[in-house]
Amino acid sequence: MHLAVLVFASVLPVTTLALDNGVMRTPPMGWLAWERFRCDIDCDHDPKNCISENLFIDMADRLSEDGWRELGYVYVNIDDCWSSMERDKEGRLQPDPKRFPGGIHKLARYMHDRGLKLGIYGDMGTHTCGGYPGTPLDKIKIDAQTFADWEVDMLKLDGCYSNATEQEQGYPLMSKALNATGRPIGYSCSWPAYQGGLPPKVNYTQLGEICNLWRNYGDIQDSWDSVLNIIDWFFENQDILTPAAGPGRWNDPDMLIIGDFGLSMDQSRAQMALWAIMAAPLFMSNDLRTISSGARSILQNKMAISINQDPMGVQGRRIVKEKSGIEVFWRPLSSNASALLFFSRRNDMPYRYQTSLSKLNYTTGSYKIFDVFTGKATMLKDSTDFVVSVNPTGVVMWYVSAPAKLNLHRFYKGGKLRGPARNDDAENTIPRVFL
User: Fold this and answer.
1) Which residues of the chain are modeled with pLDDT < 70?
2) Residues 35-47: pLDDT tens digits?
3) Which residues contact residue 111 at a Cβ distance below 8 angstroms, ignoring those fewer than 6 apart?
4) CB neighbourhood size of 209 (10 A)
5) How many CB atoms neighbour CB 54 within 10 A?
6) Which CATH number is 29-309 given?
7) Could you tell me which residue ranges the Alpha galactosidase A C-terminal domain spans (predicted)?
8) Contact 234, 275 (CB under 8 A)
9) What are the pLDDT digits (tens) for 354-400?
10) Strands lying side by side in the sheet with 250-252
């Protein structure tokens, strides 16, 4: 194996334009109803968990009172099944009158009064995925204006009951219509997920110009297998996806399911860490009223959040994939820092993985290492071999404070890798270098 070349983002040219609405310059953070609460509309028998204004008020209260808002979790996002089955007499969408008696505008004001933002859900097709009124081409302008009138802060636009031609027209039209309202509204597009997520059907340059974030892949489910499927797809396609991301334009691997039923604590730390490496939106879908202290501590980990929110906005990469089941991920951060993540796919026992910073192509010097989940800090020379013990399906995540800029020419010159010794027990991924 050729060891992977690490590249600082300061040498990467910004070639992709972002939607010019001024929002989501770092990955958005908040809470989203879908994975945990789905389309539960039975408020007679399940009043605490049904899709109603009370649910979103409860979550807003928790975000504002339990320390979430101060960490950046500010969006409270309604998903499917919020609307009436009929538009009003002026042709506008309207909320279900029984479940949202106060209306969406009042709910948005409730959020804003608490320093939060309200997100809402729509669909490009004739109907939403849950069978509620959609936003076909002839309704885009009126729906965009309705959302602005309600003082909504974000729109997720799904793609059920629409075809490729309608999506090709509709997603850019909605972007234009939202901007025309004069209200900054973050725009989440599900378009690429309906077109396989990859070129040639998906044009990531165009997506970055019309959307703030986009769903590339299928919905997450409350299971470790689902998280692994998403991780596999994103990093197997990292050469395509990584350049697409940046301030105001983000790949979205879907919700955080930490605090639900399907992940262990190690797996929860793994999801949080990998989403941070991916510069992914951090939308929790859980019950903040009953969340465990362990799940809360993971989701409120300040260092993991700071890595996710790094203002350079460069998405990280997998740089080592060992046959032993250990993988190493790397993300460049501001101030010549970086994040390193050691991830175990094993299911048997903690694995002691030995390497050194020089083998990961860090340059000569001493680095301050901060362990994201234990809080321990140490100094480490690039040449010193170290061992990390990684639990099964778990991670060890480091914030690495670099004493000096990397000398890229040490590693890559004349189109050939000039790194340290090979490790033939592993598969290599060499990130692109722009000199």
Assistant:
1) 1-17, 404-435
2) 999 999 999 999 9
3) 60, 76, 117, 118, 153
4) 16
5) 17
6) 3.20.20.70
7) 313-394
8) no
9) 999 999 989 999 999 999 999 999 999 999 999 999 999 999 999 99
10) 250-252, 213-215, 186-189, 154-158, 117-123, 75-77, 29-32, 282-284
- Both tokens of residue 170? 């509709």
Give, rounded to a whole angstrom, the gap between the first and last alpha carbons of the chain. 23
Tokens of 33: 């109803």
pLDDT of residue 18: 75
Domain positions in the chain are: 29-309, 317-410
Measured CA to CA, the distance from residue 222 to residue 285 in angstroms comes to: 10
The fold of the 317-410 domain, in CATH, is Immunoglobulin-like (2.60.40)
Residues belonging to the active site: 158, 219
283: left (phi over 0), alpha (psi -120 to 50) or beta: beta
Calculate ∠ Cα 306-310-312, nearest 5°.
175
Residue appearing with tokens 């339990």 = 66
**Would you state the pLDDT for residue 20?**
79
pTM, two decimal places:
0.90
